[in-house]
Amino acid sequence: MERTFVIVKPDGVDRGLIGEVISRYERKGLRITECKMLRADRATLEKHYIEHREKPFYEELVSYMMRGSILIMVVEGNNAIKLVRNINGKTNPMEAEPGTIRGDYANSITENIVHASDSPESAEREISIWF
Ligand code: CMP
Question: What residue's CA is closest to ligand 1, atom 12?
Fold first, then answer.
């Protein structure tokens, strides 16, 4: 059993895609074990995105993440980390396959609907930041 951390980002919430995102994880046999709606503050986002702080897109990313409400959740199941990332699709929407969340709904590399942890270490770090 593995757990991962997921954010439905402001564009996903504004576009009414919360149900769509959650139902894709549930259809795959994963369970939502924690879930909360909130407005992210800069300090929490700076911790969450620490590995990107020197990247050219960092400021745009933090501003976008503070633009509206987000849904944070913990998703659990066998191989949850890899399965959720497969369901989300590649970060770049031009590379994300149709049938994935980003392949079906995203057209921007910044506004890409969802975030999910990329390793067990990231998952535990991110869950402890947000919950
Ligand atoms: P996320 O999985 O939350 O991790 C970092 C985020 O930065 C990414 O999704 C995108 O929202 C955003 N981003 C913007 N530009 C880029 C880029 N060139 N490469 C990767 N991530 C980017």
Answer: 110
Task: Give the distance (Å) from ligand 1 centre to CA of residue 57.
Answer: 8
Range of the domain at 68: 2-130
Estimate to the nearest angstrom the gap between the alpha carbon of 38 and the chain centroid: 14
SS3 assignment, position 121: helix
Count: domains in the chain: 1
Residue range 94-108, pLDDT digits in tens? 999 999 999 999 999
pTM value surpassing 0.70: yes
At 105 the pLDDT is 98
Residue nearest to atom 4 of ligand 1 (CA): 115
CATH number, domain of 104, equals: 3.30.70.141
- The reply to whether ligand 1 has any atom less than 6 angstroms from the CB of 53 is no
Q: How many residues does the chain have?
A: 131
Tell me, using a 6 A CB cutoff, whether residue 91 lines ligand 1.
Answer: yes
CA 11 to chain CA centroid, nearest Å:
11
The pLDDT assigned to 18 comes to: 98
